[in-house]
From TrEMBL:
PROSITE patterns: TYR_RECOMBINASE (PS51898). Belongs to the 'phage' integrase family. GO terms for molecular function: DNA binding. It comes from Agromyces aureus. InterPro entries: DNA_brk_join_enz, Integrase-like_cat_sf, Integrase_catalytic, Integrase_recombinase_N, Integrase_SAM-like_N, Tyrosine_recombinase_XerCD. PANTHER family: INTEGRASE_RECOMBINASE PROTEIN MJ0367-RELATED (PTHR30349:SF41), PHAGE INTEGRASE-RELATED (PTHR30349). Residues 179-391 form the Tyr recombinase domain. SUPFAM superfamilies: DNA breaking-rejoining enzymes. Pfam families: Phage_int_SAM_3, Phage_integrase. One of its GO terms (biological process) is DNA integration. This is Integrase.
Length: 399
């Protein structure tokens, strides 16, 4: 009768015998983590001691082998999985440091308080589903961020054969009410320009450093390129050709600010397709030329927008300054990202969604449609002509 097949990490029946040296040898078959079955033996002065030594040898071998793969079991605490997951992220080096920090923050502040007292086997679909729905009652974004990190951590447990399936695969999707993207009209854009122009001219200036003219140029570049605020602040002198035919700006980086670290220019934008060269409309090219004239002779790698200390401007400070200046002028609710949506809507209305997506650096037009294009309520009036030809009254019949 054939011996039963061993599963990985297990051993068969132990046998002992007296060997020539007068000592006892304990032997067994052990299926290693490479799938191979090997003979393992240990010797001692008595049969019981030899068997004890053999089991210790097997335990040491098992701990060494599983430690190379994963030290977790279904009975491990969720917190142990979190630490293992963060270590795995660091080993892969596939996401940016900023995203890694965001993942850890969301895991520790949003997810851990709800799961820290559970073992992995206790985290099932029902518990995960209830947790995500509770988060959604607070906010859609909170539920979305919680869902991402919880799913990724549990997916690692599945990949390393700690769990048989990811309970997050069966959690109900979180829905939010459809929201139309905000886009500005040309009249609203000109009102914003007027408020910033008045502020930069020094009218009503009371104290503190005088405006340096950068805010207005930043807005013009956003309107002329559809660039994200971080991409605009990362533009170097070498990226600008304001006198070319046509004048262009190369968007090839972004500004990054992390807690406890100096703000710096990252040498790539948000995605690979976000790296692009954009032709400038006349208003943006003229604004860039004025900025370069004020900045003077810049090194090719110098940022064209920078602080008085010659350091990168932070996106948070520019957002705050824009909000304060416009609110002082009676205009509220404006964010830098609204200029990006405004540009996308204008390009779509006058050309095509494909061109709008290309300008924004999107890999999928669905993203552009869903988050950046303000839908026009007015249906193409061509429909009236088509319906008139199809169902218009025949004058000869009515007479």
């Amino acid at each position: 009768m054939p011996r039963p097949r061993l599963t990985i990490g297990t051993f068969g029946e132990i046998s002992t015998r007296l060997v020539a040296s007068g000592r006892y040898e304990a032997r067994t078959r052990y299926r290693d983590w490479d799938g191979q079955v090997r003979r393992i033996a240990a010797t001692a002065g008595t049969a019981r001691a030899a068997e004890h030594e053999l089991k210790a040898k097997i335990a040491e071998r098992t701990a060494f082998q599983t430690g190379d793969i994963c030290h977790l079991t279904p009975d491990s605490a969720f917190g142990d999985l979190v630490e293992y997951w963060l270590e795995d992220i660091d080993l892969e080096e596939r996401i940016s440091k900023t995203t890694r920090m965001l993942y850890e923050r969301n895991m520790r502040t949003l997810v851990m308080p709800a799961f820290e007292h559970f073992t992995l086997r206790e985290i099932g679909v029902a518990r995960c589903d209830r947790f995500i729905k509770q988060q959604a009652r607070i906010s859609y974004n909170r539920a979305k961020q919680s869902r991402v990190v919880l799913r990724l951590a549990l997916e690692l447990a599945v990949r390393h054969e700690v769990l048989a399936a990811n309970p997050m695969d069966h959690v109900a999707r979180v829905h939010r009410e459809a929201r139309l993207p905000d886009a500005l009209t040309s009249r609203e854009v000109n009102a914003i320009r007027a408020v910033i122009g008045r502020w930069e001219s020094g009218i009503d200036h009371v104290s503190g450093p005088k405006p340096d003219g950068q805010l207005g140029t930043i807005v013009e570049v956003m309107l002329g390129t559809s660039a994200r605020i971080g991409e605009v602040l990362a533009i170097r002198r070498r990226d600008v050709d304001p006198t070319g035919m046509p004048p262009t700006i190369r968007l090839a980086g972004t500004i990054v600010s992390r807690n406890g670290e100096p703000t710096f220019r990252q040498d790539h934008p948000k995605t690979a397709k976000s790296r692009r060269i954009v032709a400038l409309p006349s208003f943006a090219a003229e604004a860039v030329r004025r900025r370069l004239a004020v900045a003077g002779d810049l090194d090719p790698d110098s940022l064209i927008f920078r602080s008085r200390e010659d350091t990168p401007l932070t996106t948070a400070n520019v957002r705050r300054q824009l909000r304060q200046v416009l609110e002082r002028g009676g205009i509220g609710g404006i964010t830098p990202h609204m200029f990006r949506r405004t540009v996308a809507t204008a390009v779509n209305d006058n050309a095509s969604i494909e061109l709008a997506a290309e300008l924004l650096g999107h890999t999928d037009t669905k993203i552009t449609v869903q988050h950046y294009i303000r839908r026009r309520e007015m249906v193409n009036p061509t429909t009236a002509e088509l319906l008139q030809r199809a169902f218009g009254r025949d004058e000869s019949e009515s007479s």
